Amino acid sequence: MKLHRRGLIASTAALAFSGLARHAAAQGEGDDTYLNEVHGYGPLVRDPGQLLDLPEGFSYQIVSQSGDTMDDGLFVPGQPDGMACFPLEGSKVALVLNHELKGSSGLHRNLGPGGFHEERLGQLSAAKAYDTYKNGRPLPGGCSTIVYDLQTRRKISQHLTLAGTSTNCCGGPTPWGSWLSCEETLETPADADVTKSHGWVFEVPSTATGLVDPVPLKAMGRFDHEAVCVDPRTGMVYLTEDDHTGLFYRFIPNRPGQLAEGGRLQAMAWKGAPSADTRNHEGRAWNVGDWREIEWIDLEDVESPKGDLAKRGHEAGAALVARGEGVWWGDDEMYFTATSGGPVHRGQVMRLVPGLNGAADRLQLFVESTDLKTMNMADNITVAPWGHLILCEDNYSTDVRNHLKGVTPDGKVYTIGRNVFTGNSEFAGACFSPDGEVLFVNIMYPGMTLAIRGPWSSVRT
User: Fold this and answer.
1) pTM of this prediction?
2) Which residue of 160, 166, 379, 432 shows the fewest CB atoms closer than 10 Å?
3) Longest alpha-carbon distance in the chain
4) pLDDT (tens digit, 9 = 90+) per residue, 257-308?
5) What is the DSSP string of 142-204?
6) Which residues have CB under 8 Å from 443's CB, separation 6+?
7) Cα distance between residue 228 and residue 274, in whole Å
């Protein structure tokens, strides 16, 4: 693929111009706290802008930054998290991204689209917000959409598309061109300064040019939602739950592609081993490379205000998963992360192959971390155009930096990038442009969406 060196110059200039370089904490000459199991793209090169170290020949561009003014007059919200890239007309794409702003967090109110003092919140109609505080002001969570031109490398526009939700962590794209935004919270008016219950999934068309009607897809369950992916062959939706004793779910829609029309929610179970524990925390239930046949358990009262869906599902035979987070569809299979799985609690990656025409579904333990220097709490995930996985680390350590990691089809891990900005915030929302040339990714703090370019085809395994 063509190497674009201009991007590195532009990215460094943009970083310095934004003032971030003045506030970046200088990292030591060492700080190479990672281990490659295969070569990948080779050693990382220190970024003079002190934001993102990448291998030789790679560059990044800052596409969007929290606090900038959007085209609708609101501010770009903070805490950018899950994201997907959708093709538009010509060389344009839409990046639909979540903002993980918790309704009950006072700090997060200041990071919302209204601004630090909520000075522009009056420009946001409460009628277009799913929920408000008890004083009538919309909650800060939701989604924004960036329109970006791949050819000119310019952001064309950005605007808010989902408002008044809470803790929009991840989600996933649909084959019909929308983004499913997931609330990772169980807030209710009884325990938080909100007026509605939370813990739902919302759908946002990638072509939305303004705020969508915020319709909670309640049949998909009320729990600490993290991410979703859709099997394009069947329309079934698979969902992760970010909880140490969470489950892995499947939603069978009444009408594929029409999720608002309801459906049936199920939880994953190991066949012949009810209430299994996939986490390998206490003892070892399975090893890397092992396969298990799985079945699905129908769930009852999926909208329960008690927030006990996982507990009831496990008691009914569903398998435990250690903080299920990112999930992404690959080649007739999906991969999902269990962020705190494994004996050292530093993460697992599972591979699930749905059976067709009566064949059993199968689950494999694909990767399991035994050393935080190799894989350290992988969260969001995507599948690269060349078939490798891209993992976003989510580890708030003062000693070990967060990295972007690649994983080969053999389950070997290599390094793509390293966060060297102060705070060591998580990577999130990794996704590729339709042509495979650009990896978009978010850094939650200071709140940036980046475009990474480089010789992707040169990876060595």
Assistant:
1) 0.93
2) 432
3) 60
4) 999 999 999 999 999 999 999 999 999 999 999 999 999 999 999 999 999 9
5) EEEEEEEETTTTEEEEEEEEEEEE--EEEEEE-TTSEEEEEE-----TTTSS-SS----EEEE
6) 51, 52, 80, 419, 421, 425, 426, 427, 428, 450
7) 24
C-beta separation of 128 from 63 below 8 A: no
* Residue count of the chain: 461
Distance CA 263, CA 251 (A): 7
Query: Distance (Å, rounded) from C-alpha 279 to C-alpha 291?
Result: 14
Q: Any residues with CB less than 8 A from the CB of 33 and at least 6 apart, and which? A: 373, 399, 400, 401
Give, in degrees to the nearest 5, the angle at Cα 263 between 261 and 267.
150
- What is the Cα Rg of the chain in Å? 21
Give exposure, 19-58, as e/b (b: 16+ Cβ within 10 Å). ebeeebeebeeeeeebebbeebbeebeebebbbbbbbebb
